Amino acid sequence: MDLAIFDLDNTLLGGDSDYLWGRWLVQHQLVDGAFYDRENQRFYSEYKNGTMDIFEFLRFALQPLANNDLDKLLALRQRFMTEVIQPIMLPAAQRLVDRHRAQGHTLLIITATNRFVTEPIAHAFGIDQLIATDPELKDGRYTGEVSGTPSFREGKIIRLNQWLTDNGYNLASSWFYSDSLNDLPLLEIVTHPFAVDADETLTHHAQTKGWPVISLRDGFTPPND
To answer: Would you state the torsion angle of the CA atoms of residues 116, 153, 96, 83, taken in this order, to the nearest 10 degrees?
Structure first.
């Protein structure tokens, strides 16, 4: 059972959907612009250097979902997909996904970004299996709370192990592609770890371990394994 796992932000995408969604909310005046933009940038910087408190971030990031009507959010998300996400869906990333699909591998995206933002992005890449941080939904409205374990750092392993159990898979023949030092715990346990357009810490670790270091930016063709 071959399993190809992909991080999303700055791996399959040429940007971070969580950060860009925050900027989109500011642009469309659904949040306090100056405060939200400042905090969004702070959390993004903390994420990149590996110091982000995921629960503090989620209290911040999920509140706009709770503060707005779901129909309004869905309409805004549709425009976000068209105007912001589609332009940063990397062609080489789609080729990599399609190569694994052609080989009969099961495809899975695993991301710390919440499911509301990422579910249509996964579908756009043609990937049905998604593990994402789940915002709590009650009576057709988001509560601002997280449901279950956030899929971040070691939480990705917890969520993945549950998915493996539920679906009858294992990691005996598995690939994982990621850009971030935050994904080192998961990269360490798959059979084929790949550092993709990686940050400095992950690049150094990958080179030390002998892992492939690749790019999915424009013009790059993913190598054969």
So the answer is: 30
